[in-house]
Design goal:
Blueprint (H helix, E strand, L loop, with lengths): L1 E5 L12 E5 L10 E9 L3 H6 L16 E11 L9 E7 L3 E4 L5 E2 L16 H14 L6 E5 L4 H12 L3 E6 L2 H10 L4 E4 L6 H8 L4 E6 L3 H8 L2 E9 L18 H7 L2 E4 L9 H13 L7 E5 L4 H10 L5 E5 L4
Parallel strand pairs: 8-9, 8-11, 9-10, 11-12, 12-13, 14-15
Antiparallel strand pairs: 1-2, 3-4, 3-6, 3-15, 4-5, 5-7
Helix pairs in contact: 2-3, 2-8
The structure holds NADPH dihydro-nicotinamide-adenine-dinucleotide phosphate.
GO molecular function: oxidoreductase activity, acting on the CH-CH group of donors, NAD or NADP as acceptor
Keywords: Oxidoreductase
Organism: Pontibacter fetidus
C-alpha cells in the first residue's frame, strides 16, 4: 500500500516537506478484518489543526504516521461477516491506497442512493455542519438577512442555499469573481462579495445588507468577520463554525473587541463542532437528502485525481482552489 505520513509539524502554511510518501507491504488479513481499497479521500480544513500538537477537540496526528480523515472505500477482501466483499463503506481512515480495518467505526453506504463522493460532502460531515449550525444556532426566520463567509466552499454553499429555502436574504463572502458569480447566478444568493478585490468589505456588506445582519455563519474569522459584526441587528445569532483565515497563523491577530456589539445588540455567538449535534443527524441527513432530491439544493465538487494529489489538494483549501467540496478520487469503483 502507498501511504502519506505526517513528516513534520508545519509552521504556517504546510509545505511539501510536511508530507512523506511511503510504500509498504500489508500483512495477511486476520479473522474479522477487511481489506479496503480507497476510492475517495476527503481533504478538510480541520486537518490543519491536527497537524499541530496544540490541544483541540480532536487529538493531533502522530509524527511519521499516516494522516487520516474521511475516506470512502470498497471492501476488496473480507474475513468479516458484517462487511462482505464488494460493499462500500465510509470511515475515518488513514491516507493509504489500501487499508486493513477491523470494521469498527465503518459505516456501509448504499451506492445507489447518490454518487459515492456525496457522502464526504453534502450528505456527510460538511452538509451536516451546514444544516446543524445554520438551523440550530442561526435559527433563520423568513425575511431575515443571513451572511455566510467561506460561502463558495463545501459548508458555505449548503448554508446559503438552506437559508434561501428558509426565505432569507442571503449574502455570501468568497475569494474570487468566479465564486461570487456562481453564488449569485447558480445558487441564488442575493448578493456575493469578493473579499480579495473589495477594498472596503464593511461598506460593501452594508450595501448588500440594507436591513442589517440577523444571522452570521462564520467559516473564516479574522477581518472578514470583523466587518460583519458592526452590522448585527438586535438578537442576531452568530454560528462560529470555522476560522480558516487563522489556521496557518503563527501569531493571533488582534481585532476590534466584539463584546460591546454583542451586548448592545443582545446577540448570541456560539462556537460548535458538528458532532455536538450527533443526536440530530438523522433529521439533518433526511432534510438534506430530501432537498437534494427535490432539486432545491445544488451541489458542486472539485475533484482532484490520484492519490499523489492529496497534499496539493489539501493545500488548495488554503488557496481557495475549490468551489464546493474538495476531495481526491483515488480509484474507480
Ligand atoms: P471549504 O470548502 O470552504 O474550503 C476552504 C475555503 O476557505 C477555501 O476554498 C477558501 O475560499 C477559503 N479560505 C481559505 N483561506 C482563507 C482566508 N485566509 N480567508 C478567507 N477565506 C479563506 O472548506 P469547508 O467547507 O470544509 O470548511 C469551511 C469552514 O468550516 C472551515 O473553517 C472549517 O474548519 C469549518 N468546519 C467546521 C466544522 C465544525 O464542526 N465546526 C465542520 C466542518 C468544517 P476563498 O476562495 O473564498 O478564499
Amino acid at each position: 500500500t502507498r501511504r502519506i505520513l505526517l513528516n513534520e509539524r508545519p509552521k504556517g502554511l504546510p509545505t511539501d516537506n510536511t508530507f512523506k510518501f511511503t510504500e509498504d507491504e500489508l500483512p495477511e488479513l486476520q479473522d474479522g478484518q477487511v481489506l479496503l481499497k480507497a476510492l475517495y479521500i476527503s481533504v478538510d480544513p480541520y486537518m490543519r489543526g491536527r497537524m499541530s500538537d496544540a490541544k483541540s477537540y480532536v487529538p493531533p496526528y502522530k509524527l511519521h504516521e499516516p494522516i487520516a480523515g474521511g475516506v470512502i472505500a470498497e471492501v476488496t477482501e473480507s474475513r468479516s461477516s458484517q462487511l462482505p466483499k464488494g460493499s462500500v463503506v465510509i470511515g475515518n481512515l488513514p491516507w493509504q491506497t489500501y487499508i486493513i480495518a477491523d470494521g469498527k467505526g465503518l459505516m456501509p453506504i448504499d451506492p445507489n442512493l447518490a454518487p459515492l463522493s456525496y457522502h464526504l460532502g453534502i450528505l456527510g460531515m460538511p452538509g451536516l455542519t451546514a444544516y446543524c449550525g445554520l438551523l440550530f444556532i442561526g435559527d433563520p426566520k423568513p425575511g431575515e438577512t443571513v451572511v455566510v463567509s467561506g460561502a463558495a466552499g463545501a459548508v458555505g454553499t449548503v448554508v446559503g442555499q438552506i437559508a434561501k429555502i428558509k426565505g432569507c436574504r442571503v449574502v455570501g463572502i468568497a475569494g474570487s469573481d468566479d465564486k461570487t458569480a456562481y453564488l449569485k447566478h447558480e445558487l441564488g444568493f442575493d448578493e456575493a462579495i469578493n473579499y480579495k478585490t473589495t477594498a472596503d468589505i464593511q461598506a460593501a456588506l452594508a450595501a448588500a445588507c440594507p436591513n442589517g445582519v440577523d444571522v452570521y455563519f462564520d467559516n473564516v474569522g479574522g477581518e472578514i468577520s470583523d466587518a460583519v459584526y458592526s452590522l448585527l441587528n438586535n438578537f442576531a445569532r452568530i454560528a462560529v463554525c470555522g476560522q480558516i483565515s487563522l489556521y496557518n497563523a503563527t501569531s493571533q491577530p488582534m481585532g476590534p473587541r466584539v463584546e460591546p456589539v454583542l451586548l448592545k445588540t443582545k446577540s448570541l455567538m456560539k462556537g460548535f463542532i458538528v458532532s455536538d449535534y450527533a443526536d440530530r443527524f438523522g433529521e439533518a441527513a433526511a432534510g438534506l437528502a430530501g432537498w437534494l432530491k427535490e432539486g432545491k439544493l445544488k451541489y458542486e465538487e472539485t475533484i482532484a485525481e490520484g492519490f499523489d494529489q492529496l497534499p496539493h489538494a489539501f493545500l488548495g483549501l488554503f488557496k481557495g482552489e475549490n468551489i464546493g467540496k474538495l476531495l481526491v478520487k483515488v480509484a474507480e469503483y
